[in-house]
Design goal:
About 40% of the residues lie in helices and about 15% in strands. It is built from 14 helices and 13 strands. The protein has a seven-stranded parallel beta sheet, sandwiched between helices. It has a six-stranded parallel beta sheet with strand order 10-9-8-11-12-13, sandwiched between helices. The chain starts with a strand and ends with a helix.
């Protein structure tokens, strides 16, 4: 029997293209398979989530209960957060202003933590999300699931992760390092955005032969190093600004790098996040991409583009980009100060993209009994 009340948890609404893509992928899937279900999406920004995702399922609503419980914990120490959120999930009075939301949690059929890179040491309070799912599965008869998770660098010990996920009916990750943290108990079907991969995600208009997306957030190597690596790469490829399209995945953060490079590569075409979300990603076969963003790598490679990835953070980002490269994207890593990779070395995932989509849909079927 299909579930009647589904509770999704993810970091939608910020906005960030990758997080919105994952949320949209699952809502489209549920609109096809569970159109009569009541669907709740718990995110840090429910208002933004409603604006971007509210049209994708006929019965979707947005809250922030689980994130509020995690933020209310008295410390960021993982065991403390897990204990506090577990208790707050059991007892509505622990965080009184969230009592109505906790009452709702007690009535869900499926508690599903969506994929992404937010359950790690960068945001240690988010370990509480796993604790909420554990309590709901053990004590309130929910079926708890975790899919497409990027858990590195880990906020929690393997013993704590094992304790918090032992009750989950489905465990799924997006890279080998995350799988090892779960003692190989999880499947690895890749990033959750493979679930809904298809032509509807792409901009059908003409686009430039070279595309860039560069981030200022979570760039451990420094913003200047990212800009210098990008400029070196464009110069090595012999590319002028008139040949480049620049895609904004996270408003503000990605615009900052565009503003640094625009005087040096005049004529670039800027794609704001709102346009990309409305029209689709301007990626196609025959293009060459340079990016720091995981989901630009994934979608552009799936479209048949070749590309290169600037490594900005040695933990989560290297693991996830590495998983895509190992999975067949063929893209090359770029480090500041090193020569840019030559063009023409790869043309994207090819048939492996369809295989990954099938893997992800098998995980979805296991959760939603399709």
């Amino acid at each position: 029997m299909a579930p009647s009340r589904i509770y999704l948890v993810g970091t939608t609404g910020h906005p960030n293209f990758g997080d919105e893509l994952i949320g949209a992928s699952w809502l489209r899937y549920l609109a096809r398979t569970c159109p009569d279900a009541e669907v709740w999406v718990d995110s840090p920004s429910p208002g933004g989530s409603e604006l971007l995702l509210g049209h994708l399922h006929p019965n979707v609503r947005f809250v922030d209960t689980v994130f509020q419980l995690a933020w209310a914990a008295p410390s960021e120490e993982p065991w403390v957060v897990a204990d506090f959120v577990g208790n707050a999930t059991r007892h509505p009075g622990v965080v009184p202003r969230r009592a109505a939301g906790v009452d709702l949690l007690h009535e869900v059929d499926v508690f599903h933590i969506l994929g992404g890179g937010y359950l790690n040491a960068i945001w240690p309070r988010h370990i509480g999300i796993l604790a909420a799912g554990d309590v709901l599965a053990r004590e309130f008869h929910a079926s708890s699931a975790l899919t497409g998770a990027g858990l590195t660098p880990s906020a929690a010990s393997t013993s704590l992760l094992s304790r918090l996920t032992g009750s989950y009916s489905v465990l799924d990750v997006r890279d080998d390092g995350s799988g090892k943290l779960l003692a190989e108990r999880a499947t690895n079907s890749g990033d959750d955005s493979f679930l809904d991969l298809g032509q509807h995600l792409y901009d059908k208009r003409d686009s430039r032969p070279v595309m860039m997306t560069l981030q200022a957030d979570l760039a451990d190597i420094g913003i200047s190093a990212v800009a210098e690596a990008a400029l070196d790469c464009m110069q090595s490829w012999g590319v002028s600004g008139e040949e480049i399209g620049y895609v904004e995945a996270m408003p503000g953060s990605d615009r900052h790098l565009f503003n640094l490079l625009d005087p040096l590569l005049p004529g670039m075409r800027f794609y704001p996040f709102t346009e990309v979300w409305r029209e689709g990603l301007p990626a196609r076969a025959g293009q060459r991409w340079l990016t720091t963003r995981l989901h630009m790598h994934l979608l552009a490679a799936a479209a048949g583009a070749e590309g290169a990835v600037i490594s900005v953070e040695p933990g989560a980002y290297d693991a996830t980009h590495g998983a895509l490269i190992a999975g067949g994207s063929g893209w090359a890593p770029v480090s500041p100060g090193e020569p840019a990779p030559p063009p023409g070395s790869a043309v994207g995932f090819g048939p492996r993209a369809a295989e990954r989509r099938a893997d992800k849909r098998a995980v979805a079927a296991a959760i939603y009994r399709q």
